[in-house]
Write a sequence for this structure.
């Protein structure tokens, strides 16, 4: 009887410890990976400094439906699933990536990437929506005038409103040139940083930098589709989080 009592007590203690320290245990369960490069906005890097991070650590991505239990609590609250049926392409892959680093002031930064990928018959990406969320205690847009009508290579640049007081900027591919859009991708060798072209959104909301890119069939990229994607992005950012 004494043995059973001790065993039950030990199990109760283990369970209580798991509940109390679940956040740190979650992060330790993420597997570190080799990786190269950083994902950031080419247009806004001079304002947010996300291209100057050091001590970068990459983690193996998880399926999006596992993000609630796998990602650290500090970033988990900003991650949720978007209904893939609302996207203008078939989604074949849904993953969540975590990359941690330190900025030039030595402060820890967590960057989460949510990937919705559509693939062709050769399993190569042919359409995507990539949502990058990086924590920041400073608003990089506080010093941004926001008066440009085109970006640095001539593509359309628009200021929209995320909320009444918060702007969101939209870069729309209207020429044959494009600023490099970067995102993380899992490969056999670890985490790679892919450089491609994309339509982009950028905003700062409640302590987080949101940088979002999408690529779809050129035939679908009309004004109605641009408005549809803007509404989807608004919906994601403004959705209630626990």
């Amino acid at each position: 009887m004494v043995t059973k009592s001790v065993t039950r007590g030990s199990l109760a203690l283990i369970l209580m410890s798991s509940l109390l320290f679940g956040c740190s245990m979650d992060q330790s369960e993420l597997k570190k990976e080799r990786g190269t490069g950083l994902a950031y906005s080419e247009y806004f890097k001079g304002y947010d400094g996300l291209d100057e991070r050091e001590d970068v650590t990459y983690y193996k991505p998880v399926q999006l439906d596992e993000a609630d239990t796998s990602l650290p609590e500090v970033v988990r609250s900003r991650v949720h699933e978007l209904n893939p049926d609302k996207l203008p392409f078939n989604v074949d892959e849904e993953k969540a990536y975590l990359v941690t680093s330190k900025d030039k002031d030595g402060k820890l930064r967590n960057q989460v990437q949510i990937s919705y990928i559509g693939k062709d018959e050769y399993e190569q990406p042919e359409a995507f929506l990539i949502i990058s969320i990086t924590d920041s205690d400073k608003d990089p847009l506080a010093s941004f005038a926001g008066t440009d009508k085109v970006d640095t290579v001539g593509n359309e640049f628009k200021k929209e409103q995320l909320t009444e007081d918060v702007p969101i900027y939209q870069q729309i591919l209207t020429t044959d040139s494009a600023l490099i859009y970067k995102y993380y991708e899992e490969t056999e060798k670890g985490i790679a940083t892919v450089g491609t072209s994309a339509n982009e959104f950028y905003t700062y909301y409640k302590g987080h930098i949101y940088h979002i890119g999408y690529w779809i069939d050129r035939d679908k990229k009309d004004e109605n589709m641009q408005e549809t994607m803007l509404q989807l992005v608004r919906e994601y950012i403004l959705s209630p989080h626990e």
